[in-house]
Write a structure and sequence with these properties.
14% strand; 6 strands; 4-stranded antiparallel β-sheet; alpha+beta; 236 residues; globular; 38% helix
């Protein structure tokens, strides 16, 4: 989501605190802010992945590469990104059902309402609060635009992108849905979150996150995961 600056750093801190409190009240479990240009390395990495053919038959990755590579390509006025996560982990053991041979097992993330609708509604409410308080122009995204939310979330502080390509949260592991909204102006007072995210990334990841792919076992291709074959791939 993009947002406008408050008049002073103190008032900005107050606004951020209000936004975070409201986000938690709405059911979000994670909150972070990053400047739109926090990951200048993404265009080069995306281009390298496309040239290597790691996107397989997902042609839309190449078609939207320019907009996907940078938030400013999608919205030139964007200055800040607010990332929010919702933990979808169940209270009970999701593997227990595997012992029930007469029952089918549905992926945990798909057992409730469509997360696109659920999260987008909450994001819009939070964005409305921001617009009311700061007069900000805001855009909201939940898998609805070519935005690289995982590396942006990594820059914002909620977690880091693991070698399995998924964002990992210290509190919730990999079981989070992520949405974001963008703000037209920059948002001061977020350097501590960015530094904490950088420390976690440097301490936990020894190589850039890429899907496993021969000849190197530390590289992954986007066309290889099971989810690609079972969900995204076309069926005859």
């Amino acid at each position: 989501m993009m947002m406008a600056d408050a008049a002073t750093p103190a008032s900005t801190e107050k606004l951020i605190a209000e936004l975070k409190a409201r986000a938690l009240a709405l059911g979000f479990d994670s909150f972070g802010i990053a400047p739109a240009g926090a990951r200048p390395d993404l265009p080069q990495k995306l281009q390298a992945a496309l040239e290597a053919g790691w996107h397989g038959d997902m042609d839309w990755m190449a078609e939207t590469a320019t907009r996907r590579a940078s938030p400013s390509e999608l919205w030139p006025e964007v200055r800040s990104i607010i990332l929010l996560g919702v933990n979808y982990g169940p209270e009970s053991d999701p593997l227990a059902i595997l012992g029930e041979k007469s029952l089918g097992s549905i992926s945990v993330y798909a057992r409730n309402r469509d997360y696109h609708e659920l999260i987008k509604g909450k994001l819009k409410e939070l964005a409305g609060l921001l617009a009311c308080r700061a007069g900000a122009d805001v855009k909201v995204f939940v898998d609805t635009a070519p935005v690289m939310e995982k590396p942006l979330a990594e820059a914002a502080g909620p977690g880091w992108q693991g070698k399995h390509t998924v964002l990992v949260s210290r509190e919730f592991g990999s079981g989070c849905f992520w949405g974001l909204f963008s703000r037209r102006r920059s948002c001061p007072g977020i350097s501590r979150m960015q530094k904490a995210a950088a420390r976690a990334r440097d301490a936990s990841i020894s190589a850039p996150p890429r899907p496993f792919r021969r000849p190197s076992s530390s590289i992954r291709g986007g066309a290889r995961p099971i989810s690609r074959s079972s969900i995204k791939a076309p069926f005859p």
